[in-house]
Amino acid sequence: RHRAMRSWGVLGGAAAALAAGIYVLWGPITGRKRRRRGLVPGLLNLGNTCFMNSLLQGLSSCPSFIRWLEEFTAQYRTEQDKSQQHQQLSVTLLQLLRALSCQEVTEDDVLDASCLLEVLRMNRWQISSFEEQDAHELFHVLTSSLEDERDRQPRVTHLFDVHSLEQPEITQKQISCRTRGSLPPVSSHWKSQHPFHGRLTSNMVCKHCEHQSPVRFDTFDSLSLSIPAAVWGRPMTLDHCLHHFISSESVKDVVCDNCTKIQAEGILNGQSIENQRTTFVKQLKLGKLPQCLCIHLQRLSWSNQGTPLKRHEHVQFNEFLVMDIYKYRVPGPKSSQEQLSQKNSEETTPGTKDGRAGKPSDAEQPAGTKPLFMNGASSSSSSSSSSFLMSPGTFPLAAFPECRAPLYLYRLMAVVVHHGDMHSGHFVTFRRAPGARGSQWLWISDESVRRASLHEVLAASAYLLFYERVHGRAQ
């Protein structure tokens, strides 16, 4: 009996020593766990806030957006603005994205993003954390709020802004030369648009006289693409959605000024004529492609009874995306060498009319929707700009000759997926691991973070796709 009690005492002492060692090395067991190497922090679910958590993880995987925020918030680093930093959306968003991209020193495995909701509420956005929300809608709330914050800043430097006047780029000689000119220029970070900002072109051509109306430009922060009706036996791809987006459509009963002018020239003076109404062909193109490209796949459909339904079909996408074919090209006279290059391009690249396919852009144009899930019409299956990029994880530059290297090459950075139906569900994110070499991906669901393969990423039913522009072989 005495020997047994001594054995139990030895075991108890060893257990106590082991517990003490664990406490010294890793802290109390009830405390927050330390983040594992190679992973990023998760985000605490504050009550149906997976829409916000998934979007923040996607934005934090875009280095260009973080760099722009760093330049944008440089204005608040002066002494007089430090007291207002907590009220600025850009400052709060930057702190969260830097922590999620492991640029901030933190070993916590779960972060709290309630500060972002508070700043949005201060900007008059009433976002409840206990109601179903949409990640795409929140994306537009963030981008529009950042634009409002930029527009609230003064366009010229104040006369008593000593900090700006003491900047190295504004010397005493420059100030003396401006006695009869304008004030010192505003810092460049207040002028620049955020990297998701792009422009669409709308082109209208009369089918009767082929007169082309002036090109219209509209801004966009994300491309919201409808999913065309599936063709049996053919997989649906992202290029099909993009071709459907820029496909031409007929607009009837439009007044044509040129047809009216031609009609008036054939009538005697003094006689009034009616405006000539004809059919126009309208086509969209991308006039300015952004540095960061957000693509939203509309998954809203309507039944015959008028009830909303979610479309669950898989849309194939690739790690690399070439956008040259969707770029607007400025019309103008071409030299003989350019005409020969275009002829060779037409012979080597298949193309059809009505926007189902097109010719890649040869020159770069100078820079100048909020539903959750929308059904679209059918689109033909033509050769796509990313058809060379089907092998995951690689980009075969040899598929593009030296003279045909893509100008607008994008690399996949994050994918937001919605699980569930129209009335309830859950958002998760696939994103690149920051600082990892190659294609190291992560799967994140609020607080849960694990490693994922590129094959798993490309097999996901995407709702939001985040691409970032990279340099092709030509650059």
Automatic annotation (TrEMBL):
<keyword id="KW-0472">Membrane</keyword>
<dbReference type="GO" id="GO:0006508">
    <property type="term" value="P:proteolysis"/>
</dbReference>
<feature type="region of interest" description="Disordered">
    <location>
        <begin position="332"/>
        <end position="378"/>
    </location>
</feature>
<dbReference type="InterPro" id="IPR050164">
    <property type="entry name" value="Peptidase_C19"/>
</dbReference>
<keyword id="KW-0788">Thiol protease</keyword>
<keyword id="KW-0812">Transmembrane</keyword>
<dbReference type="InterPro" id="IPR018200">
    <property type="entry name" value="USP_CS"/>
</dbReference>
<keyword id="KW-1133">Transmembrane helix</keyword>
<dbReference type="GO" id="GO:0016579">
    <property type="term" value="P:protein deubiquitination"/>
</dbReference>
<protein>
    <recommendedName>
        <fullName>Ubiquitin carboxyl-terminal hydrolase</fullName>
        <ecNumber>3.4.19.12</ecNumber>
    </recommendedName>
</protein>
<dbReference type="GO" id="GO:0005634">
    <property type="term" value="C:nucleus"/>
</dbReference>
<keyword id="KW-0378">Hydrolase</keyword>
<dbReference type="Pfam" id="PF00443">
    <property type="entry name" value="UCH"/>
</dbReference>
<dbReference type="InterPro" id="IPR001394">
    <property type="entry name" value="Peptidase_C19_UCH"/>
</dbReference>
<keyword id="KW-0645">Protease</keyword>
<dbReference type="InterPro" id="IPR028889">
    <property type="entry name" value="USP"/>
</dbReference>
<comment type="similarity">
    <text>Belongs to the peptidase C19 family.</text>
</comment>
<feature type="compositionally biased region" description="Polar residues">
    <location>
        <begin position="334"/>
        <end position="351"/>
    </location>
</feature>
<dbReference type="GO" id="GO:0004843">
    <property type="term" value="F:cysteine-type deubiquitinase activity"/>
</dbReference>
<feature type="domain" description="USP">
    <location>
        <begin position="41"/>
        <end position="470"/>
    </location>
</feature>
<dbReference type="GO" id="GO:0005829">
    <property type="term" value="C:cytosol"/>
</dbReference>
<feature type="transmembrane region" description="Helical">
    <location>
        <begin position="6"/>
        <end position="26"/>
    </location>
</feature>
<dbReference type="InterPro" id="IPR038765">
    <property type="entry name" value="Papain-like_cys_pep_sf"/>
</dbReference>
<keyword id="KW-0833">Ubl conjugation pathway</keyword>
<feature type="compositionally biased region" description="Basic and acidic residues">
    <location>
        <begin position="353"/>
        <end position="362"/>
    </location>
</feature>
